Amino acid sequence: MLELRDINKSYSSIPAVEGVSFAARPGEVTGYLGANGSGKSTTMKIITGLIEASSGGVFYQGKSIHGDLMSFRRILGYVPEEPHLYMHLSGMEYLVMVAQLRNMERKAASSRIHGLLHLFGLHADRDLSLSSYSKGMRQKILLIAALMHNPGLVLLDEPFSGLDVGSSLILRSLIQELASRGKVVLFSSHELETVERVCSHIIILHRGKIVADDSIGHLRELMSVPTLEGIFSQLAVEQDSAAISREIADLIHA
Ligand SMILES: Nc1ncnc2c1ncn2[C@@H]1O[C@H](COP(=O)(O)OP(=O)(O)OP(=O)(O)O)[C@@H](O)[C@H]1O
What we know:
By secondary structure, the protein is an alpha/beta fold. It folds into two domains: 2-75 and 151-253, Rossmann fold (3-Layer(aba) Sandwich); 87-149. The chain has ten helices and ten strands. It has helices at 40-48, 69-74, 91-101, 106-119, 135-147, 165-180, 192-198, 216-223, 228-236, 241-253; strands spanning 2-11, 14-24, 29-34, 55-60, 63-64, 76-79, 153-157, 184-188, 201-206, 209-214. The strands form two sheets. The protein has a six-stranded mixed β-sheet with strand order 6-7-8-3-9-10, sandwiched between helices. It has a four-stranded antiparallel β-sheet with strand order 2-1-4-5, with helices on one face. β7 (153-157), α6 and β8 form a beta-alpha-beta unit. α3 (91-101) packs across α4 and α3 (91-101) packs parallel to α5 (135-147). The relative contact order is 0.16. Adenosine-5'-triphosphate (ATP) is lined by residues 11, 16, 34, 36-42, 81. Residues 2-232 form the ABC transporter domain. InterPro entries: AAA+_ATPase (IPR003593), ABC_transporter-like_ATP-bd (IPR003439), ABC_transporter-like_CS (IPR017871), ABC_Transporter_VariousFunc (IPR051782), P-loop_NTPase (IPR027417). This is ABC transporter ATP-binding protein.
């Protein structure tokens, strides 16, 4: 189980996340939702140890991740929202480099990489440089890099970004398959329809604070709203979309 206990993070004394505590359990897909700037990526980076919380702790299987960050990272698979890829490398070279950094056995890693490239439809492009890949192709490389070592904890920050319909359908099923095999899966997305289909449990952040932590079914009942979009709008959307869109159209029309 992954647990966050009272996480606070400020940038130049401006709070980005405040008092964030939740648990993500094996076998469940936990959706992490919130408007732009609500603190989702900040939380994800704190879980990976990429940035440090101002206070609070992250625990995996009951132990602080900072006790042995290297071992924790070996069981972690992370797809970042804003990746830093080495664009001069080919897809294949990049994945081999990631496998080496993870100390994966060379032959086993190679056969796993070839297999995953085939399944993600990228095998024919494996020797092209990442700079020539489309956004969706790069996203698939990031997914392969995050999953090829069979991580126990899977963190996906906007994983559907750039994927076409067919690939999104595969990823949807894959996320559920990974959870059903006992992994802890935490994923953030703005695609509420996908979240509604895939997640057993959702957490909604609003301005850095958790405003919901429950199953979608229970939230529907509690709030008497039939859809996740309705729940999200009540808890985390403050503006009147129709009024703003009219103002934008008026402004450009003037
Ligand atoms: N490196 C940084 N320096 C200063 N402020 C930051 C930094 N990174 C994030 N923030 C601020 O922290 C807050 C939360 O940002 P974060 O990227 O976590 O939001 P998010 O929920 O992932 O948003 P989005 O949906 O747009 O990706 C925002 O107010 C943002 O401006």
